[in-house]
Amino acid sequence: MSTPGHESCDAALEKSRAETRSAFENRALMYYHLFEEMAAEFGRDKATQVMKRAIRRRGVEVGQKYRPAAEQGDLEAVATIFCEGSPCAGALFTPGVEERAEGRIVLRMETCPLVDAWKDAGLSAEEIDLLCEIAAEVDEGTFDGAGLDLTFLERQPQPGGSRCLLELKVRETK
């Protein structure tokens, strides 16, 4: 039983989840507005390149938490870090493992608050796809920074896409 004036744990958790979702939606709209301003100033291609580079840099930083597992070739551990580290216990992106094979794992995200925010803002399918491509650089950088090869097999905004599928492979050393 909660004390007067204090939220219950469930209510506090739901409030925290809503605030986190709102922060991701805010991030999505900031990406959109930054892109629009940069495209007006420098052109669409240059704006895309600059945003991708900046977002990728953050991904490389994030990727360090995956590096020890990746260096061991332990894709199961990478998947565990990915799924267990997903915001709000997975409620925002609904992560999971789609496929497992030797030297390869496919991770999935079934929901995305960024895509939802762009849809709610009335952006076109083409705008959403481009912004998703830009935002996905955080994943590209994350797994590159960890020393893994990433291929997007599916992205939500692409035709026929209903989720994101990220194929990770142990990087071959040369």
Distance linking N and C termini: 61 Å
> Any idea what the CATH architecture is?
2-Layer Sandwich
As for the CATH topology, it is: Muramoyl-pentapeptide Carboxypeptidase, domain 2
Main β-sheet, spatial strand arrangement: 1-2-4-3
Classified in CATH, the superfamily is: Trafficking protein particle complex subunit 3
Q: Spans of 5+ residues with little confidence (pLDDT < 50)?
A: none
Report the mean per-residue pLDDT as an integer.
93
Which band does the percent of strand residues land in? 15-25%
The number of distinct helices, counting runs of at least 4 residues, comes to 7
| Count of discrete structural domains | 1
Shape: globular
At the first level of CATH, what is the class? Alpha Beta
Could you please describe the fold and organization of this structure?
The chain is an alpha+beta fold and 174 residues long. 56% of the residues lie in helices and 16% in strands. The protein is built from seven helices and four strands. It starts with 8 loop residues before the first helix and ends with a strand.
